Amino acid sequence: xxxxxxxxxxxxxxxxxxxxxxxxxxxxxxxxxxxxxxxxxxxxxxxxxxxxxxxxxxxxxxxxxxxxxxxxxxxxxxxxxxxxxxxxxxxxxxxxxxxxxxxxxxxxxxxxxxxxxxxxxxxxxxxxxxxxxxxxxxxxxxxxxxxxxxxxxxxxxxxxxxxxxxxxxxxxxxxxxxxxxxxxxxxxxxxxxxxxxxxxxxxxxxxxxxxxxxxxxxxxxxxxxxxxxxxxxxxxxxxxxxxxxxxxxxxxxx
Length: 254
Prior knowledge:
Blueprint: H1 2-55, E1 62-63, H2 64-81, H3 92-95, E2 101-105, H4 108-114, E3 127-130, H5 136-152, H6 154-161, H7 164-167, H8 174-187, H9 200-208, H10 211-225, E4 226-235, E5 242-253
Parallel strand pairs: 2-5
Antiparallel strand pairs: 1-4, 2-3, 4-5
Helix pairs in contact: 2-10, 5-6, 5-10, 6-10, 8-9
């Protein structure tokens, strides 16, 4: 009888131990599942937060100035957080996200609205692709733009560019030439042309010598005013993050 009691006690102890182990395993599995759900939720929130930065451009009528900002944002992202980043301290060294790609097309029928006289001094009618750590489009325009802003002043060259029809009238009369020089002098603070009407032709030539500069900057101003439609957005199938965006000029300017 005593042996039977001991056997029952041992069996009960084993059963209790098994129940405790089972409860611990169940708790561990629940905890792991909870943690996994938490991690997954965090990842999804990060993807949503990331995509929201770019979804704002996923629309029609994106201004050229906004597109210009988007290019710089993508370049910064590619440098710091994608596999394109080369610096030892770049987050991309361990995050290893796919680099983003932005492609935009300026259609041939729209390029004439960028140019004041049909001559393409700064921006060409073509497809531009930005997919690495270098903003090739900005590299194309920035040197000339910075030089003109340094020479004339940013506000002055912008005002001159937006007043080209008054400063450079087509087939001007002497009176229009005088008005153009007066207009130029009102806008320009440190490139004044002497209003000597006895030497009008030489003064007009002096103004004409600046025409190429002003027409070049006009293209830059017009690009920032142009509108583009986002025609396609691609997402990484594994991470859900935006990886590619495509834009096309739509002929609208403001």
